[in-house]
User: Which sequence fits this backbone?
């Protein structure tokens, strides 16, 4: 097994492990957020192995470095220490979810029995910021503009939602 | 080289773990984080398939837009969590059941 | 991995982390003492030799190692333990892409005084800066204390706000140098350019002869002065360096997010802040002050000039040493600038910090991008 393959399996195992840790973690919201960070960083490692360097950097900068920090910020602001909640019909839902997960995974494994072709060698600048920047601002400039409008709407929405209402 | 079907399998596993998180957990913040996990799973599938056809960069560009959308969704979602907490002093999903029949 | 790479990595780590960071604690003490008209710490001695207080960093380390390690009562032990590590590691590994010297070719081997040289070097620095926020946040949360939580909240908001400005203010520099590789950027600053050349390229006027010989080194500082000021502000705020040290708040909230840390764990936070000072200095030196290059002597001039007298091998060796020393001099100048800023400016208030980021630096950095793009378009004349 080459170094690249070994690293891929290591990152994959890490991401699945910590994703499970995040979802199954009952006691501590902050620990769940930190597990999510480890998942995202290992996914960024996989992106680097797949030669998508800019996407990996953006994943760490935006996803792991800002979005999960926002989660942690809200948890700290609201001081959410105590966590999950009285078990009412938890067991039935959990069993149902586990069965659903296993069935879906089995189906996917069956569908993936046909193996995909070997990845061709990528061009020199594949996944680099130059080619990505060129494509983004020539072919997909409309997408960039729409994304900026979406972000503006999100900023306005978040400001209004979280603003402390002064009771008159 | 990395076998791309294993990449797609990993993306499917992460997506399923996210779905289980959304369906099972009742802490609203953990539900939002599971949605992020689902988005990450689909991002991985995009990048994996793009590696299979490296003459175009569509997959990676879409991943960048998905990350932007995820950022805006988290911002608004956490704003909702904050207002919910201010009104009910809890982020338990079972406490927002006023419209339930 | 060849032995030379390992030796180079270890050498850079030893110089940067091992040698410079403790010396900076000494510089801080002595400079603040000079500025405040006092002597500073000079009592630490070995058998009566005080060495002007240079033994104080050693005394600090010994003191911190022998202190009791306190974990507060309701704190999460695991997170309390890993927070200083998450704060310290990004500061140290940021040295991986900073070029301490150029590319030199001896007879058949090419030596490159940088640990790793990926094509996206600066993106790595941004990613590291994003990860560094977690040390502070986890430290603030896991200490189960009011002051720590306040410090942690302030720190996380400040750090993620200034990451945006840090990135955007550097886009102008990337546009000018056309690359994200730090080695290429340092290499591109090795020449000079005509100060009044803009009359020729922008407006088409002939440059008068008496102004034509005036050349400046092609540093990022002269191409992008506004970006220099903005980047220095943003990265000092990102590293919670005074005057932006509200998260530590040394006179307001006890010690902010590292209130509940003692012994070597506090030592790790302490050290990581000073290593970040060196990282800031090295980054600013590489991006804006020409990196390892000597102002009016480019590498070819040195090798050509000295090589014709003493031989190319000796000339290249001399070049290595000269460039390394020049880089260190620039780093020390930037460290001195940060120390001066620390001991002269009063601390910003929290809303002033946020105002500065979102209302002043962000629009200015976007304006910088637009102006730089317009000027470059006018100069090159084609899209």
Assistant:
């Amino acid at each position: 097994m080459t170094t690249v393959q070994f690293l891929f399996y290591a990152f994959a195992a890490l991401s699945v492990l910590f994703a499970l840790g995040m979802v199954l973690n009952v006691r501590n919201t902050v620990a769940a957020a930190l597990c999510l960070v480890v998942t995202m960083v290992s996914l960024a490692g996989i992106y680097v192995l797949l030669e998508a360097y800019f996407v990996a950097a953006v994943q760490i900068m935006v996803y792991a470095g800002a979005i999960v920090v926002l989660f942690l910020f809200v948890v700290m602001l609201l001081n959410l220490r105590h966590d999950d909640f009285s078990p009412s019909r938890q067991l039935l839902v959990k069993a149902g979810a586990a069965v659903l997960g296993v069935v879906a995974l089995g189906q996917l494994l069956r569908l993936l029995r046909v193996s995909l072709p070997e990845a061709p060698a990528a061009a020199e600048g594949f996944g680099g910021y130059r080619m990505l920047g060129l494509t983004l601002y020539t072919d997909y400039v409309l997408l960039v503009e729409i994304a900026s409008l979406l972000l503006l709407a999100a900023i306005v929405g978040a400001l209004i939602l979280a603003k402390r209402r002064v009771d008159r | 080289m990395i076998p791309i079907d294993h990449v797609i399998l990993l993306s499917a596993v992460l997506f399923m773990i996210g779905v289980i998180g959304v369906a099972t957990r009742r802490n609203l913040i953990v539900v939002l984080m599971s949605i992020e996990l689902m988005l990450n799973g689909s991002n991985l599938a995009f990048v994996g398939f793009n590696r299979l056809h490296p003459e175009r960069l569509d997959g990676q560009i879409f991943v960048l837009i998905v990350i932007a959308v995820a950022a805006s969704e988290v911002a608004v979602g956490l704003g909702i969590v904050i207002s919910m907490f201010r009104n009910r002093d809890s982020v338990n999903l079972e406490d927002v059941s006023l419209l339930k029949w | 991995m060849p032995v030379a790479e390992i030796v180079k990595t270890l050498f850079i780590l030893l110089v940067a982390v091992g040698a410079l960071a403790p010396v900076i604690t000494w510089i801080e003490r002595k400079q603040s003492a000079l500025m405040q008209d006092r002597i500073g710490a000079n009592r630490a001695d070995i058998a009566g030799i005080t060495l002007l207080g240079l033994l104080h960093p050693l005394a600090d380390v010994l003191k911190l190692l022998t202190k009791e390690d306190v974990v507060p009562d309701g704190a999460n032990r695991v997170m309390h333990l890993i927070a200083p590590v998450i704060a310290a590691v990004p500061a140290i590994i940021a040295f991986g892409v900073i070029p301490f010297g150029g590319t030199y070719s001896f007879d058949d081997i090419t030596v490159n005084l940088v640990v790793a040289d990926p094509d996206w070097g600066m993106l790595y620095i941004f990613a590291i800066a994003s990860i560094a926020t977690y040390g502070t946040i986890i430290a603030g949360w896991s200490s189960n204390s009011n002051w720590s939580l306040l410090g942690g909240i302030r720190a996380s908001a400040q750090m993620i706000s200034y990451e945006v400005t840090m990135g955007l203010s550097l886009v102008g520099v990337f546009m000018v140098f056309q690359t994200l590789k730090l080695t290429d950027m340092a290499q591109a600053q090795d020449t000079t350019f005509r100060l009044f050349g803009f009359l020729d390229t922008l407006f088409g006027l002939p440059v008068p002869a008496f102004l034509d010989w005036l050349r400046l080194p092609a540093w990022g500082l002269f191409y992008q002065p506004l970006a220099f000021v903005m980047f220095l502000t943003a990265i000092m705020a990102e590293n919670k360096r005074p005057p932006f040290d509200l998260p530590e708040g040394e006179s307001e909230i006890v010690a902010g997010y590292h209130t509940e840390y003692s012994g070597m764990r506090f030592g790790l936070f302490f050290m990581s802040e000073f290593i970040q000072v060196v990282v800031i200095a090295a980054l600013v030196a590489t991006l804006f002050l020409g990196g390892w290059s000597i102002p009016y002597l480019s590498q070819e001039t040195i090798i050509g000039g000295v090589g014709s007298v003493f031989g190319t091998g000796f000339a290249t060796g001399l070049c290595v040493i000269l460039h390394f020393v020049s880089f260190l001099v620039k780093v020390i100048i930037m460290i001195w600038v940060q120390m001066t800023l620390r001991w002269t400016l009063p601390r910003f208030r929290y809303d002033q910090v946020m105002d500065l980021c979102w209302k002043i630096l962000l629009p200015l950095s976007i304006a910088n991008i637009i102006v730089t793009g317009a000027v470059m378009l006018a100069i090159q004349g084609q899209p």
In short: Chain C has a mean pLDDT of 82. Residues 3-380 of chain C form one domain.
